[in-house]
Design goal:
Layout: H1 2-11, H2 16-33, H3 40-60, H4 68-73, H5 84-92, H6 105-113, E1 116-118, E2 124-127, E3 133-136, H7 140-150, E4 153-156, H8 162-172
Parallel strand pairs: 3-4
Antiparallel strand pairs: 1-2
């Protein structure tokens, strides 16, 4: 969720009060997200609550679609290999996937904007639920802040797909 705070701030469309509210949400919910003593089951409803509140704040800012192009083009992340199982499960359940890759600026613009619902005048009117997971494996201390700002979940030195697959299986399971 730190990503959304960064987005609003970098677009300079967010009033000071909104910036403060986004930072308050970050300060309240981020410690829960990284609390190793809490289970995923305890965290998930609180993370949804966080996303919902942050999305509502951003929609209230009337962020314009045309301002997002530069922000998306400047994204700096990489696509990992061996995601076939993950991709197949997403497709099977009609779940969209947002991928950031430094080399695909034009594609990123389309992928990113497709997850935001804009009205006929180009003003943001709603957000879809998006969860961004970053894999940070090298230069951890140097890159940690940028990853925390760019992703909802940051996995440090985790070469597995255990967390993304556990989340996906939890979200798609029938209860």
């Amino acid at each position: 969720m730190a990503t959304w705070s960064s987005l609003a701030i970098s677009l300079c469309v967010c009033v000071c009060e909104c910036k403060a509210q986004l930072k308050d949400l970050l300060n309240s919910y981020y410690p829960i997200e990284i609390d190793s003593k809490r289970t995923a089951e305890e965290k998930l409803p609180l993370m949804v609550e966080w996303w919902t509140k942050a999305h509502t704040l951003l929609v209230q800012q009337r962020i314009r679609k045309d301002l997002l192009q530069d922000v998306v083009k400047e994204s700096d992340a990489m696509l990992r290999e061996l995601y076939q199982l993950f991709f197949d499960h997403l497709q099977e359940h009609s779940i969209h996937l947002l991928i950031f890759s430094a080399g695909l600026g034009d594609v990123l613009e389309e992928v990113f904007s497709n997850y935001m619902d804009f009205d006929e005048t180009g003003v943001l009117k709603a957000m879809q639920n998006i969860l961004k997971i970053g894999f940070l494996n090298d230069k951890v201390e140097e890159r940690k802040t940028s990853y925390l700002n760019a992703y909802d979940i940051v996995l440090v030195k985790d070469e597995t797909m255990e967390v993304p697959n556990a989340l996906l299986l939890h979200l798609t399971s029938t209860k």
